[in-house]
Request: fold
Amino acid sequence: MPTTPDMTTASDPGLLDTLQHQVAVFARRAEQTRLGGVGQVRNSMDRAAYLLLNRLDKEGPMGVKALAASMGIDSSTVTRQVAPLVDTGLVKRTSHPEDGRAVVLQLSPRGQARLDEVRSSRRELMAELTQDWDPEERASFTALLTRFNSALSARQSAHAMPDAVAPTDS
Reply:
């Protein structure tokens, strides 16, 4: 997309108004669909569940405090959000190998299968929504959205905990 002079100025209130509006519309539409992917409603997954399962898949088994820290949220929030995942068999609680009193959370085989199913469905949705985009446009949009999310995460961390390193949301 070519840039015009008014799009290159960060202080342009019109452009910033359009940006904030489009982000709000995106957030609403993403939540409405829960980015469930293509096909049946069964392919949708709560945002918190998806992010927790994704983190456990990428980083492996970990304790509640480590999971909370890596996601940039409070331990009590993780405990509350992981409870239904344990109840439905998507996450397993096990004893820490070095400290039997501590609990380690890990993705169960059922959780891995469910996460793979949702990822595949979401991948199909992303392909459908961007089917008329060039690969460079997809890459550019992904890079910019990643940068935007990183800036939001860094800002949130800076306001919550001064001198803290910003966690990632992947």
Q: What stands out?
A: Confidence is low (pLDDT under 50) at residues 1-7, 162-166. The beta strands are 91-95, 103-107.
